[in-house]
Every structure is written in structure tokens, then in C-alpha cells.
Design a protein that fits this description.
- The protein has 365 residues and is an alpha+beta fold.
- It has helices at residues 4-8, 16-30, 38-51, 54-63, 105-113, 286-291, 351-362; strands at residues 128-135, 143-154, 169-171, 180-187, 190-197, 206-208, 220-231, 240-243, 259-266, 272-274, 277-284, 293-298, 304-309, 318-321, 337-343.
- The chain has a four-stranded mixed β-sheet.
- A hairpin with a 5-residue loop joins strand 12 and strand 13.
- Helix 2 runs antiparallel to helix 3.
Length: 365
């Protein structure tokens, strides 16, 4: 009797998800089209067919075999433990009751055709990533940053066509102008066909009779380009902004890549940022701390605002000024400005100050 749990390398109490994960892992490893063992692959698939079904698994756990549909775990004439292998249709409905049900075929065939359903555009330009270092005060308003990039740019001689001016552009011989070719993969399940980008013409369907002397038929050349990038207010360190179509130019008028700008906000001498809130420190006198006061403090933009010092303030207390922090990124409003109050203790006192403090001392203050 076959031990299906051992075949999949799982414990008897394994969950449905564990069964599926084990099957996927082993199916990828032993698939014949990847150079695996066909017999081992069929054995793994047989084990999955039983253990992935609640009813069949219950029968197998209780009796060591499956009776549903007359199938058993013994070796049948088809050499597959009684299961019918292939895509056999019943007389009235889809696949007959003995056929395999593979809900994860897409996971396996991704290895042969790629994860994307559509073919990749071979003409598309590559994406570019740059770092923008901006001062903290720059995040308060929307601003423009000028950058100079070394990248692929449109060929000025052929305007991206890839052909010498006044020369013919012919139909691609490989794809007959369609820009796509059939890709066929043979598997144990049969042959599968899909359309892919023609590698000869990169999906354009056309080939220049005489390639451009400047770009050698690519339609693009290496060059320097200056860009003016709009940076929204409220950006923060490690935030990435996408500028569509500002990356490398595509081959022969293919789609441009994108530009990704990674933001780094430089530290400020007086203000620290935490989210959209700003933090700073200011000193107050002993009498201001005891009696309370209203003082002026600077903001990040350079203006001054009134800060209320409550009576009985201890050193280290933080007082908030609403709406004077960093603007919320692509939203309304701003964070807050928070000032930590430090009580200044003078090192030198005048005679009059000492006398006053001595009187306060006698009063118990």
C-alpha cells in the first residue's frame, strides 16, 4: 500500500494548505519538462489527488484505499494506481469522474511561460531610480527639482524609427508583420501554445532595410537629459515618487521606462521630524516656569508664533502649537509643532537677584 503522506513528505495530520504547498514544491521539482522523473511526478500527483479531497482522504485514512468511482490505490492497468490519466471527457459533462483535477496547473506552467499572462514588451525602456536630497524646510510647499540624467534618449536622426531617413521599412520575416510569434511547450499534459513578442523585431512587426547610422537601428542613443520634477509637499525620507515615461527611451518607438525618485530629507539644525509633527527645544526662565508666560518661538518656515507656557511648568515639558508642522502628503492640514521647554538656571547672579532668592528661600520656594 502506498503511503501518500510519505510521498508528499508531510505528517498525517497536515492541513489542506500544507498538502497544497507540498504538492506544488514537489511538482515543480519533478515535472518532466524540467528534467524531472515522470514516474515520480505521477506518484506525487496521485497522492495529491487523494489527500486534497476530504472524502477520499477520509477513506484512505480509514481503509488505506479509496473506493469512490471504483478506483483504488493499487496498481491499475494504466500504471497509475487505478486513476485515469489525461483529459478524458465524460459523455455529458466536463471531465469524467476519474480524471485528475489540477487547480494549480497555472503555478506549474508559470515556469515555462512566465508569470505574466501577456508577453513582455522587449522594446520598453528600462526604469531609472535616482535619489533626491532636499532640506527639511523644502517639504512645506510643492516644489520643482531639476535633475540631469544620463540615459537612453530618442535618436534625433531617425526620430526613433531605427531606419536611415528616406529608406524603406519592411515587414519582419519571422512574424510576417504581426509582431508576435507562437511559443509551444510540450508537457505531460499535452502541448500548450501562447503568443509571445517576436524577438527579431521586438514586437514591432517591421525591420528597417537600412539601420540608422547613428543609433544602429535601436531608435535611441545614450545622452544627457534635464528634467524638472514636481515634488509634492509633505514628502518624507525613503518615500519613492514615480514619474511615468521619464526613464530610458524605448527601442524603435517602444514605451519609455519610468523614473523613480527616492526622497532623502536632510537633517535640520533646530527641528526634528517625526511623521508630520515637528519637535524643537527652547529655554525659559525660572520665573516663567513658575508663574507661566507667553513667549514667541520660531517655526520651520521662519515666522514666529506665540507659545503658552503654563504656570508650574517642569523642565522637559512639551507644549504643542497646532497646525505648524509638516503638511500631510496629498492631504489636507498639517501636523503640529512641539516645543520642549528647558528651564534655564543662571550661573551668575547679581547681588539684588541673590537677595530676592534668599527671601524666596525663606518663604519656602
Amino acid at each position: 500500500m502506498k503511503d501518500y503522506y510519505k510521498i508528499l513528505g508531510i505528517a498525517k495530520g497536515a492541513s489542506e494548505e500544507d498538502v497544497k504547498k507540498a504538492y506544488r514544491r514537489l511538482a515543480h521539482k519533478y515535472h518532466p519538462d524540467k528534467g524531472g522523473d515522470t514516474g515520480r511526478f505521477k506518484e506525487i500527483s496521485e497522492a495529491y489527488q487523494i489527500l486534497s479531497s476530504k472524502d477520499k482522504r477520509a477513506q484512505y485514512d480509514k481503509f488505506g484505499r479509496v473506493f469512490e468511482g471504483g478506483h483504488s490505490t493499487g496498481s491499475g492497468q494504466d500504471g497509475f494506481g487505478g486513476f485515469q490519466w489525461g483529459w478524458q471527457r465524460g459523455p455529458q459533462e466536463g471531465f469524467d469522474e476519474g480524471s485528475f483535477d489540477f487547480p494549480d496547473l497555472g503555478d506549474i506552467f508559470e515556469d515555462f511561460f512566465g508569470a505574466n499572462q501577456g508577453p513582455a514588451d522587449l522594446r520598453k525602456g528600462k526604469d531609472i531610480e535616482v535619489e533626491l536630497r532636499i532640506p527639511l524646510e523644502a517639504v512645506l510647499l510643492r516644489r520643482e527639482e531639476r535633475v540631469s540624467l544620463s540615459k537612453f534618449v530618442l535618436c534625433s536622426r531617425c526620430q526613433g524609427v531605427g531606419a536611415e531617413p528616406n529608406t524603406k521599412v519592411s515587414e519582419c520575416f519571422s512574424c510576417r508583420g504581426a509582431g508576435q510569434v507562437q511559443q509551444i511547450r510540450k508537457t505531460v499534459f499535452g502541448s500548450f501554445t501562447r503568443l509571445g513578442i517576436c524577438p527579431e523585431c521586438a514586437g514591432e512587426g517591421l525591420r528597417p532595410e537600412k539601420p540608422c547610422n547613428v543609433c544602429k537601428g535601436e531608435g535611441r542613443v545614450r545622452g544627457q537629459e534635464e528634467l524638472l520634477l514636481v515634488i509634492p509637499a509633505g514628502v518624507d525620507t525613503n518615500q519613492i515618487l514615480k514619474f511615468e515615461g521619464k526613464g530610458d527611451a524605448g527601442k524603435r518607438r517602444g514605451k519609455n521606462g519610468d523614473l523613480y525618485a527616492r526622497i532623502t530629507v536632510k537633517p535640520h539644525a533646530n527641528f526634528k521630524r517625526r511623521g508630520d509633527d515637528l519637535y524643537a527645544k527652547t529655554q525659559i526662565s525660572f520665573t516663567q516656569a513658575v508663574l507661566g508666560d507667553e513667549i514667541q518661538v520660531p517655526t520651520l518656515e521662519g515666522a514666529r508664533v506665540l507659545l503658552q507656557v503654563p504656570a508650574g511648568t517642569e523642565s522637559g515639558r512639551v507644549v504643542k502649537v497646532q497646525g505648524k508642522g509638516v503638511p500631510h502628503f496629498q492631504g489636507l492640514g498639517r501636523g503640529n509643532l512641539n516645543y520642549e521647554l528647558e528651564i534655564h538656571i543662571p550661573k551668575k547672579l547679581s547681588r539684588q537677584q541673590k537677595e530676592l532668592l534668599e527671601k524666596l528661600k525663606k518663604e519656602g520656594i
